Amino acid sequence: MITLYGFGPQFGLPDPSPFVMKVELLLKMAALPYRSDSNGFRAAPKGKCPYIDDDGERIADSTFIRWHIERKYRFDFDRGLSSEQRAIAWAFEKLAEDNIYWALVDARWTDEQNFQKGPMTFFRKVPALLRPVVVKTVRRQLRKMLHAQGMGRHSRDEIAALAMRGVDSIADYLAAKPFFMGAEPTGIDATIFAFTAGVLCPLFETPIRNAAERHDNLKRYVGRMSARYYPDYPEIAGCKAGDG
Ligand SMILES: N[C@@H](CCC(=O)N[C@@H](CS)C(=O)NCC(=O)O)C(=O)O
What we know:
By secondary structure, this protein is an alpha+beta fold. It has helices spanning 18-29, 62-72, 83-109, 112-117, 131-149, 156-174, 187-200, 207-213, 216-229; strands at 2-5, 34-37, 51-54, 57-60, 235-236, 239-240.
């Protein structure tokens, strides 16, 4: 049995982490039975979630988890795609994970109002007396990470401009197709769904979300993916499951 370690449903999303949502989608696509555990962060092999435990074998990082599923269960997420399409899918995946992701982190963790509505809830279990110190320390670490990655060196407007360009590219490439690469879902849909839902999450006020909301095809896509993979959610990120 596979255990998926994440953070648990929050902000109206199956998980606040797009990487955890991505892995959950991959498990659903491969029709593998799994259970979710939101108490494993401290034991994370690389200090981050998601990771999985597959019958005692622990694999960290959403991309290595995908490769593990492909190898162990002989499941090709990209079946039917040409090598050119696979290359395009990989490039879009990394646009979301290595560029848009950091704009999302900045929007959720450094904007005060968004932080109070969102990530602040992660600290509920910290004793009230300690909470201000812990929150301050974690937010300082986050800012250091953003600075080291590079996104944190830009102004708010510059970060938004970069992320909006990424979101527009995703919407333009999706165009009128039902799924990102065509008529059927492939591996990249796990990532595009997770990050688009994260960007569209109505809890957070961001120019990136405003830009994404202008793309009707993106909202319909999130609704279509939700209907297929999260039938128990009437809506995810403000996108109704039946709207696709
Ligand atoms: N490359 C990793 C990224 C995972 C990641 O960044 N996870 C974040 C949550 S979205 C995390 O656990 N952050 C905790 C930390 O950095 O302390 C993947 O693809 O799984």
